[in-house]
Design brief:
CATH superfamily of the largest domain: ATPase, nucleotide binding domain
Order of helices and strands: EEEHEEEEHEHEEEHHHHEHHHEH
CATH class of the largest domain: Alpha Beta
Structural class: alpha/beta
Helix content: 25-40%
Number of strands: 13
Largest sheet: 5 strands, mixed
Strand order of the largest sheet: 3-2-1-4-8
């Protein structure tokens, strides 16, 4: 067995590339590159290839030591052909990652949904270790999820099962990046909170978040946390609204799938404990009484490395 795999977490705002030790799941080295406004296939794939080369050169790792390159991508994917069918937050559609990656690096290539990979990482080394019946939900630029039953990822007839971010919570609601209206992601993601805050600021509302904002920069989860800690009315209201929608979505999961465990992860969950605690409390209150008593919630234990760790083991799934 070769010692390493390269795992890549391709998110809506960053590319995290890691050298993962296949013996123990440790991330031995990683590179993080931000995706700002320069999105699209050329920019995204260019940064990805640069990241892989940087990981190999900085660790003095030979390609012969790499068993696979795995990519965990936000959006709808074709696993068999290694194609990103649609990733609206990245402005990438029908992107053949397998062809691009393997033209540069002659090693086996695997592609999965980002939260699916995170669930695999958490199942092997994190919060779901020893648990074979759970749902993983990550809240960041979007809202993604993965269903695991009897230790197996449930992918559905078209490989798109678990898209909780695109359940409809308002028939005539806000537009979503997927093209629909009223999706949970348009209400409960960090991006949704950011848009609500920015809209209020443009209307003249005051907020202490202005103390942290720099021109041309996005609102971050850290800024949201600091503003809540200072009891900012506007930010707290926007976070409460997002939490109300997310807790309703989680209650639907509890009632419909009845898992033993729900793992919550992503930048917003990690940074803003107020959001996490309020959401799980309200999800239990909104669920049917019996499953509400049995459901367990945990934060993702691997943090930022859930996705890259799972991606490194896609060759074993």
């Amino acid at each position: 067995m070769k010692k390493y795999s390269i795992g890549i977490d391709l998110g809506g705002t960053k590319i995290l590339t890691a050298l993962v030790n296949k013996q123990n799941g440790n991330v031995d080295y990683f590179v993080k590159k931000k995706i700002k406004k320069e999105k699209g296939p050329e920019s995204v794939t260019g940064k990805m290839l640069d990241s892989i080369n940087e990981v190999l050169s900085e660790t003095d790792t030979d390609l012969n030591e790499i068993s696979s390159i795995g990519v965990a991508a936000a959006g709808q994917i074709d696993r068999g052909n290694g194609i990103i069918i649609g990733a609206p937050n990245l402005e990438c559609f029908d992107l053949n990652l397998r062809r691009i990656i393997q033209s540069e690096f002659d090693v086996p290539f695997f592609l999965s949904n980002d939260v699916e990979a995170a669930a695999i990482g958490e199942m092997k080394f994190g919060a779901a270790k020893g648990v074979d019946d759970f749902v993983c939900v990550f809240v960041g630029t979007g809202v993604g999820s993965c269903i695991v039953k009897n230790g197996k990822v449930i992918r559905g007839a078209t490989g798109t099962a678990g898209e909780i971010g695109h359940i409809i919570v308002d028939l005539n609601g806000r537009p979503c990046a997927c093209g629909a209206n009223g999706c949970l992601e348009a209400y409960a993601s960090r991006s949704a909170i950011e848009k609500r805050i920015e809209g209020a600021l443009k209307k003249g509302r005051h907020s202490v978040i202005l103390d942290y904002l720099q021109e041309g920069k996005n609102i971050t989860s850290g800024m949201i946390r600091k503003s809540i800690e200072r009891e900012d009315e506007l930010v707290t209201h926007c976070v409460d609204e997002a939490s109300a929608y997310l807790s309703g979505g989680l209650a639907s999961i509890i009632n419909f799938i009845n898992p033993k465990l729900i793992i919550l992860g992503g930048g917003l969950i990690e940074a803003v404990d107020y959001f996490y605690q309020k959401t799980i409390k309200d999800a239990k209150l909104k669920s049917l009484p019996v499953p509400a008593l049995k459901i367990e919630f945990k934060k993702a234990a691997l943090g930022d490395f859930s996705g890259v760790t799972g991606a490194a083991y896609l060759d074993e799934i």
